[in-house]
Amino acid sequence: MTSLLALQGVHTHIGAYHILHGVDFEVPTGQVTMLLGRNGAGKTTTLRTIMGLWAASQGQVLFDGQPIGGKNGQRSTPEIAQRGIAYVPESMGIFSDLTVRENLLLAARKARHIDDIDTQRLEWLFGLFPALRKFWLYPAGKLSGGQKQMLAVARAMVEPRRLLLIDEPSKGLAPAIVQNLIAALRELKTTQTTVLLVEQNFGMARALGDHVAVMDDGRVVHRGAMAELADDEGLQHKLLGLSLGAHQ
Q: Which helix (H) or strand (E) is 147 found in, with range?
């Protein structure tokens, strides 16, 4: 099994604070890897370090075997994005004053006009997220929380990407919206897009994840198959302090 992304001994400092302490894990190509852990474990810092928003102070980040992060191979965030990596932050990263249409156009790096976006891909996105078509000309700031999250994910998917980094997409969403999001991400899995997904909804993690890395205090303390963690409540309690069975 080949890995598209690998973190090797990654340390990250933010000011005087040492947040990541030698993070090691791999993200297999064409599959979904869940990054789990308690609040404050370092998951968001890991995603931001991969994107170059915070520089790794030690170790390295490899994408398709080439260094994109680390003391001797740090690339800028635009350079990392140009390699086919998209990031959906917890804050969603949409432009509230722009319409849904304008948000998608901005995310399509190769498009200067909406007609430059591949029509079939746009229709595919509308099928996954029907609200995008319905509110095509509405300011994004007037969408509901669930609709904003769907727009944020759609922005990352508007062009084919090799890797998606998604930070807690279900946070604060109603269960029905979460199920819609799970269905959309399952459809994305059929395209062989590689995904690294941070998520606190463990039902969603079980539904989508192929692999899992669990973090605690800035370190990876467990790696393995998501199905194995889902079937082992004792391990869930040990690593996360709760069970997947209690969080459908």
A: helix 145-157
